[in-house]
Amino acid sequence: MKNKKNYDYLLSDLTTLTGVGKKTMTILKKKNINNIFDLLWRLPKSYTDRTLSSKINELQIGQIHTIKVFPMKYNFPRIRNLPNKVNCEDETGKIDCIFFNSYEGYIKKILPLGEEVTISGKISRFKDRYQITNPTYVSKDSSLIEKVHTKYGLTDGITEKSYNKIITQILRNLPKLDEWHDKKILDKFGNESWNDSIVKLHDPINIANYKSNFYRRLAYDEILSSFLVNSEIRKKIKKIKKVSKKFTDNSYINTLTKLNFELTNDQNQSLNQINKDLSSKSKMFRLLQGDVGSGKTIVSLISALNVIESNFQVALMAPTEILARQHYLLAKKIFPEKINIELLSSKSEVKKKREIIERLKNNKINMVFGTHAIFQKKITFSKLGYIIIDEQHKFGVKQRKSLSDKGGKDCDILLMSATPIPRTLTMSIYGDMDVSIIREKPNHRKEVKTYSKLDNKIDDILKFVKKEIYNGNQVFWVCPLIDESKKVDHQSSVKKYQFLNKLFPNKVGLLHGKIENDDKELILNKFLNKEYLILVSTTIIEVGIDFPNANIIIIENANKFGLSQLHQLRGRVGRGSRQASCILIIKSNLSENAKKRINILKKSNDGFEISEEDMKLRGFGDLLGFKQSGIKNFRLADPVHNEDLFHLAEKEIKRMEKDDFDLKKYKPLLKLYDQADIINDIV
Predict the structure, then answer these.
(1) What does the alpha-carbon distance between residue 56 and residue 130 come to, in Å, rounded to a whole number?
(2) How many angstroms from the chain centroid is the CA of residue 349?
(3) 51-145 falls under which CATH superfamily?
(4) Distance linking the first and last C-alpha atoms of the chain
(5) Chain-centroid distance, C-alpha 468
(6) 39: pLDDT confidence band, cut at 50, 70 and 90?
(7) Taking a C-beta distance cutoff of 8 angstroms, is the pair 422, 639 a contact?
(8) Is the pTM of this model over 0.90?
(9) Taking the CB of residue 450, how many other CB atoms lie within 10 A of it?
(10) 3-class SS at 385?
(11) Which sequence spans correspond to the domains of the chain?
(12) pLDDT in tens, 608-624
């Protein structure tokens, strides 16, 4: 076969396969199956055993049997829509073969009268006679019938038999690829080759054999391809030479004086790592990952002061204007008066906007705060040296690289994320970046006390809310849905708002995804300014905003949420000096899994520990339910079950980087796992 000795065959168009026409190709492409390699990863779900060869008097209703019979009589009705029937028999009994949508000529060809034929299919019974409707196999030669028939997750419009033929054809024509692993690595997987592993993966006897050498070898290939991409991008960025930032410790000392508290060990360590990168001659591309309330913003602002001290400009981008404003106000509070900072907001007057844009261009502004709008083409910086991106955990590899290009080669990049994820995921998702982690909470922060309450105890919860409001606290009340759903017994945010507004007239706000952005900002500001005492909301309050007076969060149907999401929601309170509480409203008939989630949350305030447990309970796909753009889910590899393979890949990458490995050796691997194009696009 053409291309049999290289991987190009696997990347070829589906129409190169026998039996795949335009119709079939269209069906497959709707399922994101674009080439032969993609089709290989539609793995078997189960199999059909056709080894049960029987006589007619031994047949079992509902079972698949393979039997030898003699066709005796055709029954081709002349009435439309009635099926064609062939009466068959053996020495022990009789059976009918029923055909829908089959021509007489075809039936006569496959079932000639008086000649022995082998048929296979599911047995049913009608009017005291056995029958097989549309037999899967009909053949004069019984050896041609597959004894074990693989079943795939089929796509509408493709029969099981046709799908199997296509897969068999691919496996038969697999190219012999040169091995890309060293012998030391291959030994860990029983010296299984890529080709043999793929073939075994499609053998029905190996379904769900996750601990096998062939399965683990393929999972490792997938992990390594992702790590290789990250490594290559990281190397390319490190090679970019820049003007190093020169600064003193004055900013650090002056800022701490204004804050009246000391940084945690993790904050200091992260700040030192960032400062080291800023003062180096290589471009910084770093992620600052921290749990909710760990103090990432302070670290980023101190580092921004250091850059300003080096006569460079700084831009901080936040996902919402209200969050950008909060960062701006904090900087206003702790920055020296001589530092010129501005907030570029869509609400700013046109004249003010023009003035800010002009001052940025002429290097009259040291630092600007805003949303993604601060990177519009019409906005130019005189000497941009540092970009800080807050809450951008949804950025993929390509988006992050485009960010690193902003401001040219002298511009360092810091991304911040308050979404703790397990280390295995950090390695694969953020492997193109250096990572600093803040786990410790500041000493002045109190842990949020977490309670669970049955939904029939609503009166007790309301008494507690009244007491807290009387004491000057504010309350978040989170509901999963916007509108009432008949299918799901969630209390909607709208109904809850109407209910609470009767108890607390004009003191309750409502926030959900269908509200326009300008109105959202208005509602949040009213809550921030204590015009609202209770804010009924969907999960859109999950990330980022700091409300120091909100110390109570109530979450309806908490058992319906994942652990990580509950932890993020809980992180909206406890930002002030008062004790904060989180109340999880639950049903009495919880599943064991839901009980585990609730208990873990009640016991722990550590976001990283919680994310680990969440991943074990729900899988990494659900953990990353925010669907990170540019990040593909692994086909085989699982960060929970294959944690050792992630660590092995990390170790191997470090060794290869030390030895200055040749990427060409891994070209087939990168091509096959759709990673080579990423490298070409990015570096």
Answers:
(1) 8
(2) 39
(3) Nucleic acid-binding proteins (2.40.50.140)
(4) 35
(5) 38
(6) confident
(7) yes
(8) no
(9) 22
(10) strand
(11) 7-46+166-209, 51-145, 449-604
(12) 888 888 888 876 655 55
